[in-house]
Amino acid sequence: MTKLLTELNARVAGISHDPTAPPLVLSGVSAAYASGQGNATRRIAPAATESHLYAVQDISLQLALGERVALVGPNGAGKSTLFKLIVGIIKPSQGQIQVFGRAPEDHTCIAYVPQRNEINWGFPATVSDVVLMGRTGRIGFGRWPSGRDRAIVQESLTRVHADHLAKKQIAELSGGQQQRVFIARALAQQTELLLLDEPLAGLDTPSQETIFEILDSLRGDAVTVMMATHNLELAEERFDRIVLLNHRLVAVDVPEKCLTAVNIRAAYGGGGGEHV
Q: Has residue 59 got a pLDDT over 70?
């Protein structure tokens, strides 16, 4: 039993990183879903994909350490699917994903904040409870949080200016406060790759600015950030590079070279984009 617990704890604590490897590399990644099943993405054999639609197709992409990247594209373009592939929630039907030189499985460094409509805000949990959930992969199987774990939770809440909310129920918070709490959970997880799916949706300008201030502070920790957004102006002003997606990659470049009229028409003009 002791050996089993040791192995479980080692697995939960995450796998080692190749210090020379990029934080994220996608090579020819595709994920397909059967027609008539909505967006229920599932893994299928590559030979069977001709009669199926792709959620994302032939995605090759590499992120640099500490980079801040905007993921932009129309509704239904595959942005959420791409995030779920990177996290490992969905397996690719083709291609390979590597996080610091290894497959996403068993990594504890990947933090994913889904769209707000995918979160059960009625779940009875305090802000501290939610942030402590970020420590699960570090604590290990069958262990209770230590004083250090709780100190990390407190520090994470302080970094997102939410320490005064620690005892409140998560459902009682405003949208901006809830997003800050989920970023605090990622910080408690000691994330090195942070994926944010439309975190600015529905937030007023001051709340959006607070989110960006927090993301700015992560540069000093070499945290790589990828954020899905519909706001092209913010993508152009606040990110190092933009990934323009419509099932296929339309363009990946610095904002001024990515958001050209030609690329925007290719992404938003209907149908899948083509490489440029």
A: yes
Pairing outcome for strands 53-63 and 110-113: unpaired
In whole angstroms, give the CA distance from residue 234 to residue 237.
5
Report d(CA 240, CA 169) in Å as an integer.
35
Kindly report, residue by residue over 16-47, the tens digit of the pLDDT: 788 889 999 999 999 987 544 444 444 444 44
Question: Given a cut of 50, is residue 101 above it in pLDDT?
Answer: yes
Tell me if 240 sits within 8 A of 214, measured CB to CB: no
CB 209 within 8 A of CB 176: no
Residue 263's contacts (CB-CB under 8 Å, 6 or more residues apart) are 244, 250, 251, 276
Can you tell me which residue has the tokens 């129309």? 74
Answer whether 0.90 is exceeded by the pTM.
Answer: no
- 86-101 as b/e: b if 16+ CB within 10 A: bbbebebbbbebbbbe
With a cut of 90, say whether residue 177 has pLDDT above it. Answer: yes
Output the CA–CA distances (angstroms, integers) from residue 189 to 14, 109, 137, 183, 192, in the order listed.
11, 7, 7, 10, 9
Distances from the Cα of 26 to the Cα of 57, 125, 168, angstroms: 11, 35, 39
Q: Which of 62, 64, 39 is nearest to 52 (CA)?
A: 39
In the chain, what is the straight-line distance between the N-terminal and C-terminal CA atoms, in Å? 55
User: Across the chain, what does the average pLDDT equal?
Assistant: 85
